[in-house]
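Hi U.,

Before I forget, here's the chain from the pilot set. I'm dumping it here mostly so it's searchable later in email.
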Amino acid sequence: MKTVVHAAFDLAGVTLPLTSIHPIRQVKPSDHAFGKYKAVVSSIREVGVIEPLIVHPQRGSRGTYLLLDGHMRLKALQELGRTEAFCLIAKDDDAFTYNDKVSRLSLIQEHAMIVRAIDQGVTADQISKALSIDIAKVRSSLNLLDGIDADAVELLKDKPITASSLRLYRKAKPMRQVDMAHLMVSGNNYTWAYAEALIIGTPADQLVGSAKRKETHGISEEEISRMEKEMEVLERDYRLYQDQFGENSLHLNTIQRYVKRLLENTKIKRFLGTRYPELLEEFQELAAIEAL
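Structure:
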């Protein structure tokens, strides 16, 4: 049986005057994402609106629309003196879905986008103006992944890692870079401080030549040696627990299903409640877990 998926908006789209579009919230400098606003203004000025606004007809008011997605784009259009915009008409007034499904570009994805644009003939100056970023940053982005192993890049490509963290990867050999990427992903920690700790805890034979004699302010050679040993133990324990995780999860799922079947038996449940109430409470908490 085939599942029919209906479009959430009219595919044709329509150009509307900005005066007929009413935002459901105001874009303010205090907003979390306001730092991207200048980039939005520059992008629209240079190349126009790439992603249409999403609107829905306002009930009880003919010819007016509620803006579901694109509040920064609308504000930028108004600031640039534009009078109309191409819009997609949503079939439901559901603003949550559009905002919940926003996918932010990671640093590595942004790098790939800039490299692809350069390869297609776009100049660094044009990219700088379109994204409202310093041209030096555009040029440095071209070398962002130099010296970093492709497997490590693949692991980190959609993660919020910083440029300073990536630069530290160049101090390690390829296999160590992959190990570091695995540890960052598993710990969901992509900060420079964590990357530096991983480098400090890396044995000298896993570092590139220029980084083997590390000069770390406030840390003696003895302390660095101890950190290397502790890091080795932590990584070994982590891999052990990672290997056991799948098997333990399977066992726990099996136990949970068995406990649920026990609690469906009213006699057993009543017996446990009378004789072993503490055990019954533990069983009920186990059975109530939705995802293991």
